[in-house]
Amino acid sequence: MSEKTLQHRIDGPDDAPVLVLGAALGTTWHMWDRQIPELTRHWRVIRFDLPGHGGSPAHAASSVAELADRLIATLDALGVDRFGYAGCNIGGAIGVQLALTRPHQVTSLALVSTSPRYGTADAWRQRGVVIRTNGLDPIARTTPEHWFTQGFAGAQPAIVEWAVQMVRTTDPGCYIAACEALASFDVRSSLGRVGVPTLVVVGSEDQVTPTTDARTLVAGIPDASLALVPGTSHLAPVEQPSAVTELLIRHFSTAWHDKPGPGGQTAIGAAAPKPQIAPPVPPQAPPAAIESGHAQPEQVRGATYEAGIKVRREVLGDAHVDRVEAAADDFTGDFHDFITRYAWGETWTRPGLDRRTRSIITLTALVARGHHDELVLHTRAALRNGLTPTEIKEVLLHTAIYCGVPAANSAFAVAQRVIREETTPEA
Q1: Which of 6, 44, 122, 281 could disulfide-pair with 16, CB 3.0 to 4.6 Å?
Q2: What average pLDDT does the chain have?
Q3: What is the distance between the alpha carbons of residues 403 and 384, in angstroms, rounded to a whole number?
Q4: What does the alpha-carbon distance between residue 86 and residue 251 come to, in Å, rounded to a whole number?
Q5: C-alpha angle 240/245/247, rounded to 5°?
């Protein structure tokens, strides 16, 4: 298997139409096991594992687009040109990406526990920092409360243990890369271009991708229906296998020809009218593009600025950049533009050094000059850029020799506080 394809499994008759199933972050294709007996009566089912999940080789992919491209390469190698697609969590994100970029190949779509934007970029990158420092065990131990309702978890301890072990045995580097993929995934402004019949399935108790996210998908996709599964949390295909199987069969067989009742919503056990929701507001331009009482001409704010604001947000975090830009005015706005274009758009984007190395250089310079406020900011950035606490410690030890022990002593106090804040798993 090459780095450009994904580990996969095929079930069902060779001459049947193809249905592809995408798994959630931290799971394997086995999350769909209980759907397979019924689905293979109608389709040739292809399941795939994300990189580093299950027995899949650990060839990390850091964007949803890259994962979609690898799936297409896998299907091309199998001679599959057209297919239906159902995905859960990041598997659903891959499905939206395919519908946007491969509309001639995707015949219909089912999005299970899926969001057009998964939380915030800062939260996903923070999870990467925690995993890089502590491994996947803290994430694994909290998995049951995020994936299942309390009643299901109490009644099915074997399934809960299976879920925990599935996450625990995932390759950490690939999991972190998937976090980066979700950090940058945002299709809210593109939903109107999803041109295939789409079923959106959500558990009524799902707190990871809540019903509000599902309704945003339905409101934005022109040909979409909503199915609400009562008493179910995030991993709906595992918690309510029969219900999800029934929905998938109905949708991929007839849903886009014979839609559900008025309003296009289906509920298992209790029907409800489709909410009348205004289409989601497209995301605004990054706050840095408009200053309070300050606007740069387009010839100044060009490609360099756009590249700079992108890197600045990825390294320092959306929350920090938003705060800075919200506080900018006529007096400080030009300075922030200057930083964005020259520091982030021209220096941090140069190909000669990777971001880890640039973080090491930056930490050293800040220690030497005693810039402790900036050291707080760039210690967090160094963790985001892949440095471990041990590596940051080595950088600071090195500065003790070349920048002086007092400077390093102050830097250790600053970095210790930041590292504790950033790497302590949530209770």
Answers
A1: 44
A2: 88
A3: 25
A4: 10
A5: 100
